[in-house]
Write a structure and sequence with these properties.
Chains A, B, C, D, E, F: InterPro entries: 4CMD/NDH-1_regulator (IPR052512), AhpD-like (IPR029032), CMD-like (IPR003779). Chains A, B, C, D, E, F: This is Carboxymuconolactone decarboxylase. Six copies of one chain form a homohexamer. The first copy, chain A, has seven helices and no strands. The first copy, chain A, is mostly helical and 126 residues long. Chain A has two domains: 1-53, no CATH class; 56-126, Up-down Bundle (AhpD-like). In chain A, helix 4 runs antiparallel to helix 5 and helix 4 runs parallel beside helix 6 (93-107). The longest helix of chain A has 16 residues, at 109-124.
Chain lengths: 126, 126, 126, 126, 126, 126
């Protein structure tokens, strides 16, 4: 697992490309404008260290991410991104509906309603 | 889906029994002591209306619940319960490890550390 | 309390009409576009099962909802809706001011400032 | 409203005595042990500046506080204190039940379950 | 520390002027439109009672505020304001970068990404 | 910054030793019992990748961590740990008092009261 920073970054961006084709340039560009090490540190941890691990299929991981972001309710833009990423990695619309309804149980109706807004945007983006 | 309150309650408790054998008496008893309608309203919504729905396997639903409760961080007792329920419905320890690591990405290291504590308790309870 | 799904939905929408005349078509339409059962499950729980209960006047319930949404801070659109619903069910502007100031005590000044923005929008909408 | 610090503190503690007889010594002692100005700053803001204001009855304010603390889920000890304070200022057990059920709608079932635990402790303390 | 309300307000606005020149008219105007006592109560507590205290330099206090608002994630507008206020009180861009990266550790990657957006806006505003 | 996993872990534990002498064995032991890679992934990100960076003194970083954990309110055990770590890295009790009071402004009085409890435990532990 020992990787050079440039490899760690590259591996993270390769995973991000699977979540949404074209996203790496946009996301890495945004982070590079902020600080030269931000992409490697943040995306390297998220994608190279954790999300790229074996043990759970990528689609399952996106289902978990959608549920967490919807329940927390503090990152609506990223919730919508991961709704799209879920669809891109093989999660079905029907499964997203089920996740969103389950969010209502554990985080309340307003969190579920906000997730419906994000899901509909993601559905319409395809 | 139209069910009498008594059926709605019974269906919820049947689902709860699948999450943890023996839990229905304890949970329903706790709620009945509070208010006669609490179990039907709260468990009926959670389990009869939502979690019992087709569309996602129960094990997947428990994975989502564990992720949400760990990310929110406000219900440690119920997080530990759903760690056990996840194991009871077929989620493996290895999968729980992966969920807990992914919590760190989306909700921070302290949320993940608290989830590790809950997971270890659930692992030891078996 | 045993009701057919169609009745449960109808009762929820009748309550929603009291919160804001005209809201049922908009809210139910939004949910129906997402999934055919969403309105019955989410609004049925929220409004038929809980908010329509005796035991607290609707105006008091809206005061509680405004306080909770303002303190949580994760659903600004719904906070503004319930500010209007509070006014529609008989809560006075002076009472909303008091709620918003009290939010500062329990959830901090930024939560209160955000609630002021929502309250001013609701005041101006009338 | 211009008051000397000693008066501001005294007014805050007088309000606190209404919430729970005997609480002022305990709470002020706890804060005085931490820093000499903590009681005046924190309790002065909470109770002298805000909660003692006209515009809402004290019982209504305690209902709002219970709802906010239950929805936020981050201060279980203070939630239980304000459950007792609600009862002490005239809120009925039946009203607390309704608040707790409404918490489930806006903050989720686990938040409501935790509030049930706090409510039952408060009920048993009397 | 005993001050008349008008002085308490004036002291709060003087502190606010240090955070962002020109902000007092805008912020106080917004609050005065809501309720005549809001500025004194909310800004008086925040700035006169707490932030104006000795014991921490104002720049350090703004670093703490930026970290807290970024970690909580519920007040994006105020996060951006305090990013600017941090710069105005002597915090460097490099220090803000470090704070934002540290937010990722304790509150997760999405919170950090949102803070990057706010920081970039604040950097561009100068 | 390219480091082998064993070095990344060792560097993280060296930083942790500065936060609290003796903590590395306890924390790493707890994580190793959970999963062999947990310490490297979680502590490596937190301490090797971020907290060990130049750009902010360690004492300042601990002040930020204390403020964030107190504002979030979801990790009381870790809040107390970082209160002690703040003292261990040169933050004074007077500075901790100021942080805790400032938490009340941005996250509310209950968050500040909980932080007072944690601070007093940390003060007494020395």
């Amino acid at each position: 697992m020992s990787v050079a920073p440039s490899d760690r970054r590259a591996q993270a961006l390769a995973l991000l490309e699977r979540l949404e084709p074209g996203a790496p340039e946009r996301v890495a560009g945004n982070l590079d404008d902020f600080h030269e090490a931000a992409a490697e540190i943040l995306l390297g941890f998220a994608f190279t260290d954790v999300v790229a691990r074996d043990g759970l299929p990528l689609a399952t991981r996106e289902m978990l991410t959608v549920a967490m972001l919807a329940a927390m309710g503090t990152a609506p833009g990223q919730l919508e991104f991961h709704m799209r990423a879920a669809l891109n990695t093989g999660v079905t619309r029907e499964q997203i509906v089920e996740i969103v309804l389950q969010v209502a149980v554990y985080a309340g109706i307003p969190a579920s309603m906000n997730a419906i807004t994000a899901a509909k945007s993601a559905f319409n983006a395809r």
